[in-house]
Design a protein that fits this description.
Layout: E1 2-11, H1 13-25, E2 30-35, E3 55-62, H2 67-76, E4 85-91, H3 95-102, E5 106-108, E6 112-115, E7 127-130, H4 143-154, E8 161-165, H5 171-178, E9 183-187, H6 191-203, E10 210-213, E11 224-230, H7 233-238, H8 240-244, E12 247-259, H9 263-270, E13 274-276, E14 280-282, E15 285-292
Parallel strand pairs: 6-7, 8-9, 8-11, 9-10, 11-12
Antiparallel strand pairs: 1-3, 1-4, 2-3, 5-6, 12-15, 13-15, 14-15
Helix pairs in contact: 1-2, 4-5
Length: 295
């Protein structure tokens, strides 16, 4: 049985507010924004809500709506021509179940799995990190997170101290603890990320070895064995002195969130302190791993 119709527009950020207001005024039940060009948006600042340059903008209506009347009403409220659109039928289904069925356990390296709570881990003897998608960034599905998780799986973290700078959901820090790290300090400028990190550590039984902290309280970080920073190239460059000086001599620095063409300038920013190994690439994204030189 058909329960819904959706009108899907091609839009740009500057037109979204007007289009959304007009559609809601004409009876839309919900509005959904989606990336129309595979443009990543990573680690926005607190209170920021960046949008993609090209947006697929969907408005949901009941199946009995008169779409011609809706479109005329929307156009009357806009000071620009109605964007190109298409109308689709949305069949009745259990959307929560469909979403859960789409999200599966993922393996990173030889030992580590990220598993949603509603699925039985595929390998009970593996290192299984239980993590559900949530408000904070980082579930392992993005290439940058995957690159970091693969490195953690390959490293000997037994007894090591770790900083996860820009922790998002806490997936990297929790993975480090499950893989043998002694302690983790997770830092993020979003309080919601710190809540998510603490919750995920508790779910995985390692909250007693994890601390969370806002950046303004982390200007002086006691040197550790490993620093992880999966953020963006700009912040990585700005944070170079802080992150480098947060490492013990011989400690490992793992940087991600940067594109292939950004790697060289990021490495140059850390050159006074860090000796880098060859970069690792995954679908255009790169991971840099280096070691802190003796002071």
């Amino acid at each position: 049985m058909v329960n819904w119709l959706q009108i899907i527009f091609a839009s740009t950020p500057e037109r979204c507010d007007a289009l959304e207001n007009a559609l809601l005024a004409c009876g839309a039940l919900s509005i959904t924004y989606q990336d129309a060009a595979d443009q990543p948006l990573l680690e926005p600042g607190v209170g920021e809500m960046p949008l993609w340059d090209a947006i697929q903008f969907s408005a949901l209506f009941t199946a009995d709506v008169d779409t011609d009347t809706v479109l005329v009403g929307v156009q009357s409220q806009l000071d620009f021509d109605l964007p190109r659109f298409r109308i689709e039928i949305v069949e009745k289904k259990d959307w929560e179940r469909a979403w859960m069925d789409h999200y599966h356990a993922m393996r990173f390296g030889k030992r580590l799995w990220i598993c949603p709570s509603w699925q039985t881990p595929p390998d009970p003897d593996a290192v299984n990190l239980m993590l559900d998608p949530g408000l904070a960034f980082g579930t392992g599905t993005h290439q940058t997170t995957s690159l970091c998780l693969q490195w953690l799986d390959s490293a000997d973290l037994t007894g090591k101290t770790v900083v996860d700078y820009g922790c998002g959901s806490g997936v990297l820090g929790v993975a480090a603890l499950l893989l043998g790290a002694q302690s983790v300090l997770s830092v993020d400028n979003d309080p919601q990320a710190l809540v998510a990190t603490r919750d995920n550590a508790e779910r995985n039984g390692c909250a007693d070895r994890l601390q969370v902290r806002l950046p303004d309280l982390a200007a002086a970080i006691e040197p550790v064995d490993v620093v992880l920073a999966n953020i963006l190239a700009g912040p990585l460059i700005q944070l170079a002195p802080l992150l480098a000086n947060s490492l013990k001599p011989g400690g490992y620095l793992v940087l991600a969130g940067l594109l292939e063409e950004q790697a060289q300038v990021v490495m140059s920013a850390y050159a006074p302190w860090i000796h880098f190994m060859p970069a690792t690439d995954l679908e255009g994204w790169q991971r840099l791993v280096g070691r802190r030189q003796n002071r």
